Amino acid sequence: MLLEQAEAAIADLEAEKVVGRLSISIGSDNSATFAPVISQYVASRPGVDLSLNVLRSRDAIAALQQGEIELAIGIFPGKHRGIRTEPLTQTTLSLLYKEHHPLASWRKLVLRDVACQRLIIPPQWTETRKLIDAAFAKSAVCYENFIEVINCATAITFARSGVGVALLHSSCIRSSATEGVRWRDLGPRFGYIEISMAYRATTSNSQIVGGLMDALRRQGSETD
């Protein structure tokens, strides 16, 4: 016990010595999971000046390549010149709807039934939307009635109001208030979304960024 307290005290002293600037991008749907880790990390290091941006995945990669930010958290498929990506966690997609929506009483859902609803889905340029569209296309099912929203928090708000049924990250549901709604995890039917951190190869050697990356890894392992 005394040893653990001593180690914690030493860690606190070392943290206070860290000085510098930290520029990060985080996807809007990842903030509920990882923003608390970032805020706690920076709060324990008063010498660190934080700049936090919300960028699209492609814009975050470009900002990394141009040296405008040190670290990005989001969905980054494929390979990118000069950039390393490291998985933090993954999530399925879920169907979420108002508590007394007719779907709540259905024991089994097929994709054609889902397509008949007014869907609340992410914008077309997002990786999540591409996964959704690929799942419908694979089953030769089309949906026509839909609303695009910028993030999962907005999707939950709309679904709770009875505007439609939302297709969104299961992890975002678990980290949100879910009074008045019900949901079904769609599992492998739609595949998995991998949440990663992206950084330049030299960035991980930085004391400021390296420490935060370790904290994000711990949070990611707890989320899985």
Characterization of the model:
With 224 residues, the protein is of the alpha/beta class. The protein has two domains: 2-89 and 195-223, D-Maltodextrin-Binding Protein, domain 2, CATH 3.40.190; 93-191, Periplasmic binding protein-like II (D-Maltodextrin-Binding Protein, domain 2), CATH 3.40.190.10. The protein contains eight helices and ten strands. The protein has helices at residues 2-17, 31-43, 57-65, 111-115, 127-138, 152-160, 170-174, 207-223, and strands at 20-26, 48-53, 71-74, 83-91, 93-98, 119-121, 146-148, 165-169, 181-185, 193-200. It has a five-stranded mixed β-sheet, sandwiched between helices. Strands 7-6-8-5-9 form a five-stranded mixed β-sheet, with helices on both faces. Helix 5 links the parallel strand 6 and strand 7. The two termini are 29 Å apart. Mean pLDDT is 85; it is low at 1-14.
